[in-house]
Every structure is written in structure tokens, then in C-alpha cells.
Design brief:
Elements lengths: L7 H21 L1 H10 L5 H30 L5 H18 L6 H24 L1 H4 L5 H28 L8 H26 L13 H14 L1 H30 L4 H25 L5 H20 L4 H28 L6 H10 L7 H13 L2 H6 L1 H16 L13 H4 L2
Helix pairs in contact: 1-7, 1-8, 2-5, 3-4, 3-5, 3-9, 3-10, 3-14, 3-15, 4-5, 4-8, 5-14, 7-8, 7-11, 7-13, 10-13, 10-15, 10-17, 11-13, 12-13, 12-17
């Protein structure tokens, strides 16, 4: 990682992506399969996909309410890291507990709490970007986070996959193997977080305010509307990132509901992680030559094509092709969205604005998973649910064009973060 020209503080920040991405990968692959086994014969294939989507939507809705309020509080001097550690603790403990639950409804309840801790930790983590690097370097640092997260998360994932698939050889049941795996993921998550906890220093902050939660949320929305470029971008982000996160969230569940082989589904999604590493780095480097918003537009168009292809998918070979296509654009659209947003918001209110960003889709989708779940149940065909995502991408693309043509209040000065850059 040092060969990519990152400072110690930047490397510490990137390491958290390595840690939380291990949970993200489990959440999009093995955990939904495990949930299917926990549910057993109690849920049909359509209901299994729907309830999984509803749980994701509930977790995101909770984070949408809490994210902006807690994010605004974290902008106060010295609070961001403490709130980050608290959210991290909720996520890690919940992750470890999931392996001990055998009732499907209780499993979903704990999953919602775990996802809430995970998503809130990302609010504080993303807002740290303005403190750990300069605006001119933010694209490459953000891309490095996602890229190393993709490849780094493969290490514990492959170990867990071997343990789960070969549980009989290790003298374990499927449930026992899953319990051990979730504990391993939780431990990896904590270990990768330690450098950030040790090395992060909050540079930008605001004066403490004694406001209630509702007033804090109202002030955050007023501040966002005053930053017109950032506000329009958030609305665009709401639509297109919902589609991206829905595909990440429900890929395994979608493939399994179509009757595709479970082992091959996991291998295909592992391919996505490997492909994402070099392409995410490439997008970070391309941002030095091309406008970031235009690169995001390219990714959105690619996702529209991916969604249409997924509608006609019938074989595991096609699923592998889609996995490669997703890997090519997944990291780019996430990393560039994060860094682009960090440059068009007030750095001293980064926590407040990144908290608001969660309302518009960060960490997990709400609208996307809800639409897919509802359309799937209404039509009785999961493929029509996936196809509905095209509309989200199209609206997001149109609004992003509007945002790119809107003047910014920021001057893109690099002087604000010289302390972090020299660390």
C-alpha cells in the first residue's frame, strides 16, 4: 500500500475499508445463504428474497434517521472518533452474535441492529476523509480505500468459505462453521480498525451546539439546501447508488432464488472482488485526467446495461459475466462519489453532510431493495424486480448532469489539510 504514495494517516484510513469490507462481502454472499438455511421451509423463495430486502430497508431507514443527527454531533471537536468506536462496537458484536441464532425472525432483528452499527460507522469514517487528505488527493485515497477493501476482504472470506464448504472434513456442522466464520470476520474487522483509531486526528470541527435531535436534523437539511451543488448531487446519488447497493445487497439472494448453484454463486462474487481491485485503482488515477462527475456518469450507464442483462440471465455462466462487469464499475462509482462529495461540502461540517448522505443511500439501499422486493412479490418474478432498477439509474444520471452544471461554493483549496497530508 505504501507504494501507492499514501501517508501514514491515509493508510490508516484505508485500512478500515479493508476491515469493514470483510463484513460487507459476507453480507452480500454467505449471510443471505445462511439465512435461507435458518428460514428452512418456513419461507418460500419469493418471501425469502422479500423479507431479506425488507430487513435491509428497515436498517437503512433507521440509519437515515440517526445518521444526520449523529453525524452533526460528530463534527464537534474530539467526538468523531468516540462515536465511530461506539458504532463499530455495535456492528462487531452483532456480527459475532449472528452465528448463534437459529430462528429466522430473531436473526433478521439482530441483522438489522448489526447493519445499523456498520452503517453509522461508515458515516463517521467517510467524514474523516476531509481530515486525512487534501482535496486534490481525495479521489485516489478514496479509490485506494475501496480497492484495498475489495482485495483485503478476500483473505478472511476465502478462509471462511473453505471452512463452511468443507465443514464435514473439519468435523463441524454447517451452523458451527458459520458461527466460527462470523467470529473471524468480527475479529478481522476490529484488527483492521486499530490503525485508524490510533492515528486519526480531527482537524475540522464546529462549535458545540445544545440542540435537540429534530432541530439538528432540520438545521442539517437547511445547510444542505444552501449548498445547491451538493444538494442536487445528493438527490442524484439517492437514485443511482440505491441501484448499485441493491445489486450488491441482493445479488446472491437473486441468483439463489433462480436456482443457481450456491458454490458457483460465491465463487462468482469473489471474482467481483478481485476484478474490482485494479479497476478501482484505475478510476482513481483517471480522475486526475478526466472530470470526476463524468466518470461517475460512465459507471451509471454501465450499471444500466448490467441491470438489463441481469433480467435475461438464466445460467451461472451469465452470472459470472455479470460479476466481472459489476467488478469493473462497482469500486469506481462508490469511491468517486465519496471523494467528489467531500470536495463540494464544507469540511468543518463533514460529519453532518455525510450523515445526510446516508439518507440518500449510503451503506445499503432503501428504495431499491423495497422496489425489488415489492415488484418481485407483485409479479411473482424476481427478474422483473431487478429490471425496475433501470429507472433509478436513469433518474440518477439525469440529476447528476444537472449537478455537474451547478456552480460550487467550494474553492477546492488544498491548504486546509496540510497537517494530515504531512503526517
Amino acid at each position: 500500500m505504501s507504494g501507492f504514495g499514501l501517508t501514514r494517516t491515509e493508510r490508516s484510513w484505508v485500512m478500515y475499508d479493508v476491515g469493514n469490507s470483510a463484513f460487507t462481502l459476507m453480507l452480500s454472499t454467505i449471510i443471505p445463504i445462511y439465512f435461507n438455511s435458518v428460514a428452512g421451509e418456513e419461507l418460500s423463495s419469493v418471501d425469502y428474497l422479500a423479507y431479506w430486502g425488507y430487513a435491509a430497508s428497515i436498517a437503512t431507514l433507521l440509519c437515515a434517521v440517526l445518521g444526520p443527527v449523529l453525524g452533526a454531533y460528530s463534527d464537534r471537536s474530539g467526538l468523531r472518533m468516540r462515536m465511530f468506536v461506539a458504532a463499530l462496537g455495535v456492528g462487531v458484536i452483532g456480527c459475532a452474535l449472528l452465528g448463534f441464532i437459529s430462528a429466522w425472525l430473531a436473526f433478521l432483528v439482530v441483522l438489522v441492529v448489526t447493519r445499523l452499527g456498520y452503517s453509522l460507522s461508515l458515516v463517521f469514517y467517510d467524514s474523516m476523509l476531509v481530515d486525512v487528505t487534501t482535496p486534490s488527493h481525495s479521489d485516489r485515497v478514496s479509490a485506494a480505500g475501496y480497492a484495498w477493501g475489495y482485495i483485503g476482504s478476500c483473505v478472511p472470506f476465502v478462509a471462511c468459505l473453505v471452512l463452511i464448504l468443507g465443514c464435514d472434513s473439519f468435523g463441524m456442522t454447517m451452523g458451527q462453521a458459520m458461527t466460527v466464520s462470523l467470529i473471524v470476520i468480527a475479529a478481522w474487522w476490529v484488527a483492521a480498525s486499530i490503525p485508524l483509531v490510533k492515528n486519526y486526528k480531527q482537524i475540522h470541527s464546529v462549535d458545540a451546539r445544545s440542540e435537540g435531535a429534530l432541530r439538528t436534523l432540520a438545521r442539517t437539511i437547511r445547510n444542505a439546501r444552501g449548498e445547491r451543488k451538493a444538494f442536487v448531487f445528493l438527490v442524484a446519488f439517492f437514485f443511482y447508488i440505491d441501484g448499485v447497493y441493491t445489486i450488491i445487497e441482493m445479488a446472491t439472494a437473486y441468483g439463489q432464488s433462480m436456482g443457481l448453484d450456491t458454490t458457483m454463486l460465491l465463487v462468482a462474487l469473489l471474482v467481483t472482488q478481485v476484478v474490482a481491485f485494479p479497476f478501482t485503482i484505475a478510476f482513481g488515477r483517471m480522475s486526475t485526467r478526466f472530470d470526476t462527475s463524468r466518470l461517475i456518469m460512465v459507471c451509471i450507464v454501465a450499471y444500466m446495461l448490467i441491470t438489463v442483462v441481469a433480467f435475461f440471465m438464466t445460467s451461472i455462466t451469465q452470472f459470472f459475466a455479470l460479476a466481472v462487469m459489476v467488478g469493473m464499475f462497482q469500486g469506481g462509482i462508490q469511491a468517486l462519489s465519496r471523494s467528489h462529495f467531500s470536495r463540494i461540502i464544507p469540511p468543518e461540517r463533514a460529519g453532518e453532510f455525510f450523515g445526510l448522505m446516508d439518507i440518500f443511500g449510503k451503506g445499503a439501499s432503501f428504495t431499491g431493495t423495497l422496489v425489488v422486493s415489492a415488484v418481485s412479490q407483485l409479479t411473482g418474478q424476481t427478474s422483473f424486480g431487478i429490471l425496475s432498477l433501470v429507472a433509478l439509474f436513469a433518474i440518477g444520471l439525469a440529476l447528476l448532469v444537472v449537478s455537474s452544471r451547478t456552480p460550487s461554493n467550494r474553492d477546492h483549496s488544498d491548504t486546509a489539510c496540510t497537517e494530515a497530508q504531512s503526517a
